[in-house]
Write a structure and sequence with these properties.
The chain contains 2 helices and 6 strands. With 109 residues, it is of the alpha+beta class. It has a domain of 75 residues: Alpha-Beta Plaits (2-Layer Sandwich), CATH 3.30.70.120. A 4-stranded antiparallel sheet has the order 2-3-1-6. A hairpin with a 6-residue loop joins strand 2 and strand 3. Helix 1 runs antiparallel to helix 2. The chain is elongated, with a radius of gyration of 19 Å. The structure holds ligand 2BA.
């Protein structure tokens, strides 16, 4: 058995949990904080049988993959004091950091 620890962005968490659960994986979701940005992220723990590891990683890659997204960001427009304009900008969202660890023992008491 492996323990799959995946650190993902909060916005991907619910979809990833749903997709893993739908495929029969057990998941625990933790609210975590990244050490560098000091911003919230989500860590998922999944205990996975060895023969189901690839399927689990495929789902995490699909849902958590980083991608470019167009969003609108408020920008102050010069000249007319205090006016705001929404400018489209491209940002990178998503991404998953995944650790796969051998499980020595697994108990449910
Ligand atoms: P990522 O490398 O995609 O990491 C996203 C989050 O995954 C991290 O959040 C951290 O919570 C976790 N993580 C990544 N690698 C890890 C590891 N080896 N062990 C344990 N947890 C790990 P943050 O620490 O807030 O980092 C957010 C993003 O800032 C990182 O995205 C990376 O792009 C950048 N970053 C992190 N440390 C950096 C540094 N020392 N210098 C420059 N950029 C850094």
């Amino acid at each position: 058995m492996k323990l799959v620890i995946s650190i993902i962005q909060d916005e991907d968490a619910n979809r990833l949990v749903s997709e893993l659960m739908n495929e029969g994986y057990s998941v625990t979701k933790l609210a975590t904080t990244g050490g560098f940005l000091r911003a919230g992220n989500t860590t998922l723990l999944a205990g996975v049988e060895d023969n189901r590891l690839d399927g689990c990683l495929r789902i995490i890659e699909k849902v958590g993959k980083s991608r470019r997204q167009i969003t609108s960001s408020p920008m102050t427009a010069g000249g007319i004091g205090g006016m705001y304009a929404h400018m489209p900008i491209e940002v990178t969202v998503g991404g998953a950091t995944v650790f796969v660890v051998d499980v020595e023992q697994f108990h449910k008491f």
